[in-house]
Amino acid sequence: MDIENMVGSSAPTRSEVAQIERRICAAVQPCAGDHTVVAASHHNALAMSLGWTGTAQRKWRSGIDGADLALLEAVADIPWIAERYRRVVIASGDHAFTFAVASLRAAGVEVIVIRPDIGFSSALRRAAGPNVVSLGSRPPANVVNLFTHTKDAA
Hints:
Blueprint: H1 3-7, H2 14-28, E1 37-41, H3 45-51, E2 57-61, H4 66-74, H5 78-84, E3 87-91, H6 98-106, E4 110-115, H7 122-128, E5 132-134
Parallel strand pairs: 1-2, 3-4, 4-5
Helix pairs in contact: 2-3, 6-7
């Protein structure tokens, strides 16, 4: 779970993290014993650690795309994951997860991508195929979406 990406803020609050946790859990209904990994920038480690109340491995990393890199480490060993997990859920809209999603699917793992309300990579959408879950809320009123239709380039 990429906290900043899912909340839609580079500085999420503890309450925003708690709210996105509730929305994600409602969308995919995790089971007892699931291995959950949440990540954020080191600047947001406290809000993530206190806001996410469920059982989860918490990771943070500095730098550009720090949370993405921390999460990508969790899915780096595709054959190991394919032997041990039937399903992987990735909550992010970043294109950085495109290769991991495609590789996991090719290895026979069911991959579900939970897309954020705002900002969803078209490459990640294509890699996920039909297994994209939208949290279903509308963008904030101050956000204007000039591109109401998506179109794949050939």
